Fold these 2 entries.
Entry 1:
Amino acid sequence: MRLFENTNVKFIQNRYWAYALSLIVIISGLVSLVVKGGPRWSIDFTGGVSIELNLAPIQSYMPPIHIDNIRKVLKENGVEDAEIQKIGDPNGSVYLIKASKREPQQTQILDILKKAFPDYTRKPEQQLIRLQEEVGPKVGDELKVQAIKAVLISFLLMIIYIWFRFELTFGIAAVLALVHDVLITVGLFSLLNKEISVTIVAALLTIVGFSINDTIVIYDRIREDMKIHRKEPIDVVFNNAINRTLSRTIITSGTVLLSIISLLVFGGTVIRDFGWAMLIGVISGTYSSVLVASPLVVEYYRIRGLKDKDVKSFKKKK
Amino acid sequence: MKKSTFRGVAILIFVLVTIVFLIPNIMQQVSPGSTKYLPDFWGNKKLKLGLDLRGGMQILLDVDTSKLPDKEKDQAVKSAIEVIRNRIDQFGVQEPSIQRIGTNRIMVQLPGLKEINRAKDLIGKTALLEFKLVAEGTQAKDVVNAMDVYLSKNIDRYRYLNKYNDKTNNEEKKTGNAATDILKTTKTAADTNRVVLDSLLAADSGHIFSNLVGSGKDTMTIAYEDANLLQTLVQDSLFKQAVPSGFQIAIGKEDKNDPRADRDVYVLYSNAEVTGKYLSNAQTKIGSGYDPKTANKPYISFKFNREGARKFDRLTGDNIKKRLAIVLDGIVYVAPVIQDRISRGEGQITGNFTMEECNDLVIVLRAGNLPAPVSVAEERTVGSTLGTDSIKSGALATGMALVFIIVFMLLYYGLSGLLADFGLIINIGFILAMMSLFQATLTLPGIAGIILTFGMAVDANVLIFERIREELKAGKTVRSAVEAGFHRATVTIWDSNLTTLIAAAVLYQFGTGPIRGFAVTLSIGILGSMFCAIVIVKGIFDNFVTKNNPDKLSV
């Protein structure tokens, strides 16, 4: 079976359309981020409590608790900002309760619920509590710094590696493409009102790893072709290289997407947001490898008014 | 030929290592416990499930050493770890892990824990046991009055107490100001009489504190629904400073059997006469006799060491008929009247205990107090139900991803695709084997990492096959196309995978627990897939091509 054989799409020629599309998505994400005052950090970063409880009644004939009742009881007991949500099966009784601020009264959510709903909570803790997380505000702040640092350090190391193996311009262009992917993922998460948790940061770094992989494959081909077709203008060489690797790019992204889709469909609720981040990131990463990273290098040579023969240093390198 | 022998050996080692370290895991699956027949260095190398999969609690504690001199800080954290380990051992959890993180943090992991909140209480308790005399009569009244004055003046800071403010805001402000004015004028003249003065002034200002603790009767009490308010209040640093020096205000213990009962409030002399440092033993006992207050109820019996016994002897001898409060972590457990001198150094803490409470207290008393207060910086608990659910869905997702990719590769690349599938399966085995070898922990993000590796693992093969197709199309013979394909693609595979490895390494640096697990699986997966593609699949290709020299290739 063969798909994408002998493609000759004019990626480089049409790069402005690609830039425009990227900018539209990035800007709408940024607008959402600005309007909402930054990403929606999860309690990993803000500090707070998050509890997932199985509040099925102990006697099967009893009606399930209504979500508003939980909210009311918590409010009466001083937990003002609780966010309550039903998880999984809409007929089930699994609730996720989050409170961001850690007033002394708010650490006791479980105690409050136990007192208010004995018929729904009188069971072994192992059955009642599915997930209980509590993060102090100090840890959260530290983590935020660490997360941002981690992403920036990964960018820096990528630039250095590509500088060493290719050229600085290529490294910068590749990292701009990575910034593009991270911005799109974070922006879309903000638009979709999804939280940025530690797991999502892990997804972002994985996306960075995946996207750079794709970009390097194309760069590698460009480097190889440059050595063979010394006479041809840069944009032709670039466009051919992208086209020759297009099949591989799409097949690999396809297999990764197959993995992600099975993770999303079958992987359970805990890992779902991770799956969404990966889905967005892999699509964006593939797109940026083809339509952002290499065209940006061409852009650089155009702007500097460099002639093709000026790319000598690059041609010499192996 | 020499090169291929070397390759053969490499492949053999790779496959052998994979198989050897998969065996304990397989044995464990087939019949749990059977790994004990293997030698330890081998049988112990099993895949560990993370807390998020098997259920359990992970708690990160912050040790507050800010009040200790620099020299003692390090030791304080070390002995805190010891104390916590003792407590956990006595509580009885299997395979606990207690580690120091950074300078003043302690990570405690308790897998398969059943009573989550009980364990949490147990670990985080400072368990500072103190014996303090109760201030009564006018002294107590003076303190209460002083607090009334302080709160009236500073009601803005304690808005949550507004419902106990018996004056309207306006009036209160006026009198508050008036009180300060009087205070100012008389301050120089009668500085020492300040407490008395305050009590006079209090008659004029609000009675917020008196109202809160229902004072006026013999004992002060607080309604259960306001207990949290009072606790917040007495922990407030400015409030603490406002308490006349030498005294402190403390709240009585909650009755677990009757949580809605009022709780006592005490004014104590803040100087601790004797502390838990001198305890030599503590035990849970059950009361006997006919007194309904104690019969068949659990209580704690404790014994002091010599020095403690001497101090206790003097304390009780000097203060007969006074009340002595037994205070644990700032909460008054019981405050009996000293009836007689106690010289044998033995005592009891009675109170409305549940059996469980009593046992937990004995554990913390025996293990000793923490040298510095700890607070929970982070807690993550996964119930066993969710853990089991996660394992199930993780396994399903893994299986489905595997099937999708295997079928796809087979359809798209024919027989060559089959080789890639073969490489993929070896690679999964390799990931699991390596994780067992390093006794790494398999977490849910780790499973996600494995699933993602499937997609990425075939990438090396895709690169090679695409290149071979291209070379074939350019008119090369099968043999030279395979040669050129592998040769060219290998450079790309190195470059692209090394950068991905860089990202994984950063991820490892950044993360803790589950995230690290993810970074590890991702890295092993990348390395394994490179080996599978560049060495194993290439070896098979080479053998096939050199031996048969076919003129067609299913790619």
Note: Strands of chain A lie at 48-54, 83-86, 94-99, 129-135.
Entry 2:
Amino acid sequence: MPVNPETVFVGHQTTLVIEPFVVRLKSAIPAVQSSICHLYQGHVFLSEDASSFADFHISIDQVGGARRFFRPQVQFKFDGRMPFKPLPYSQAFPFFEWGLNWCIANQNFRHLLLHAAVVEKDGQAVILPGQPGAGKSTLCAALVGRGWRLLSDEMAMIDLTSTELIPIVRPVSLKNESISIIKAFVPDAVMGESFHDTSKGTVAHMKPPVESVRNAKLQTKGHWVVFPQFRLDSSISVETISSAEAVLDLAKNSFNYNVLGALGFEKLCDLVEACDCFRLEYSHLDEAIDFFASLAK
Amino acid sequence: MDELGYYSASEEIACRELKGEYLIFSGFSRKTLVVHACAFRLIELLKRQPYKYDEILDALGKASDALDNNDLASFVSASLEQFIELGILNYSGE
Amino acid sequence: MMRHSPPLIISLLSNPAMAQTLSLSQWDLLVRQARCAGLLARLGFLLEKQGIKIPAQPANHFVSAQFYAVQFSVSLQWEIRLIKKALTKVDIKPVFLKGSSYVIAHNQAALGRVFSDVDILVDRSELALAEQALSAAGWMPSITLNAYDKKYYREWMHEIPPLQNYQRGTAIDVHHNILPLTCRHCPDSKKLLENIVDCHGDWLLSDIDRVIHSAVHLFHEGEFTLGLRDLSDLDLLLKEFSAQENFWKKLLQRSEELKQQIPLFYALRYTHQILHTPVPEKVLKASKQQSPNRINTKLMDALFLRALMPDHESCNDRWTGLARWLLFVRSHWLKMPVYLMVPHLLRKAFRRVMGKERH
């Protein structure tokens, strides 16, 4: 059922439940409002009286003064503070997504956060750590398009008591060639608009499937850690890696491992101990998907 | 190597064996290391209680897969120095 | 003119038990104000001490901040160890100031406190040697400085430029006095160094000197982003140390000796007014009486009672911006004579406009 800016943005403000967080967003920018309504359509929007506590108070506003007329810009504010420099006006919605990543990663020491995508099938989750050029988001979007449940495309959030993976279901961020690749690979994927000339190139977002959003509270155990590496024209190769190597590499790919100290170390070891760990080199998406399908059997 | 003082493990460390490999985390220097089995045993030894250098050589020399005496001494000296540098071990002497 | 009821964070700091009656939307505001003021962890610990059960959603934020503070403390202990190791090589034993001193001495003021630099005090004669030894251990000037900036730091301020460790990114401020040499009422650093105490093998200023230093630092400050946190430090220090015999009398005497009666007056006045620190009435009177100059309390209240609030939209009124700006100018006026101050401020403004100002 479509969600309208007029209904959910009251006084340019809305409260959006992105489990496990509640986000209060204020923005008068039409592109932000419409993208939110489009890409978070399956999520819950709270009415003002029901929304007493928000984890993050975010505003995306146009920068005022002379800037309104010459190369207009937008600013991201986290409860009035500006952690970043302004960006071009056209990048307002990606700014929300990047800024929200920062809010979660920077404030949260109740969970171990890894820079990784997480998808799940039949109660078994795969963690895909995201070094640059790895192609984690493309792979994540493709897997989701082939029926895997999306937990997150950006952040593996690990419960420090149970070691289970906690979903943060949000639009999957794709860049440059990946956008057309996924449009072809998953024809019925719902895509948001493309944003050009960002620091990452052209960026677009794939709406998370309704089922993934519905299961946003369903935590799951990790079964595999797969370090993907996209390499043009290479044939698919899979290498098993040791748990110790996986721990070191995941620690490097973590947002807050450094702060969590010994507890983070223990939990990371617990997680890896329960998983089979691989490096995957691939150039054809369908070959990679087949590999994951074989894992899930 | 100094023989008079006591070596002990820092309170801020965590140790873990994962499928035949040995990992140490140092809360002080925030480093995560993969170490040799012998180094792991050294740290586990010092976690139990402080030891002097000679006592360490004695205890580690008894393990079935222990290095021979000369190798063991150099290995232990180097490890002790490294681990103190990384905040994994403490030394109480001058 | 001033707000009628204090911000939620202020009420909770003086009376944590009040948390039992908060609604979820009040918790929302409290978390935001506390985070803004740099007091989220401290408040979390204070609420824990009171046995207050925080609702799940806000609890996540407190727990995160508290966890961070505990881990910060571990890192700080390591940093202190490395600083001592570097300076021991040249036979210098530094005096640890401010936040580091609270951690070393296990003071209440260490509770939930996170900060960016370690501050140390050395004798002026040892400054160059200290800088060399720290440089050899990897601490480099953390900001690019031109000739003017270098002169500003070395000649006029009371520290060498901030040093940053090239590997860990941790920073040290090396002082040779607690106030700039150009300062109007400069304390005699020799007097401070005569009174240092050994605390678990580390040197700290005496408890009374640490209170005075905290007062001096806050009430010469130009930027008050962490003003409430520093005021809260003073509140905790005063509560802890006032149990010592003759504490208040010694505090007043020492402030005269060090010529810092005015900062102490403000410290006692505003901890008492804002955080309800139990400062005896006669002590408040005496601190005002022993001030060398007449203080326009009405004006200073109008400025400080605004600037010491968290810089958050829920705590500001339409005069807060002006109050902060006036105190910014005042802090420069205190630290340097006018003939230096005006060109300095103009230079800063120019560099800011040109995008070169990082300090």
Note: Residues 6-91 of chain B form a domain with the Outer Surface Protein A; domain 3 fold (CATH 3.90.930).
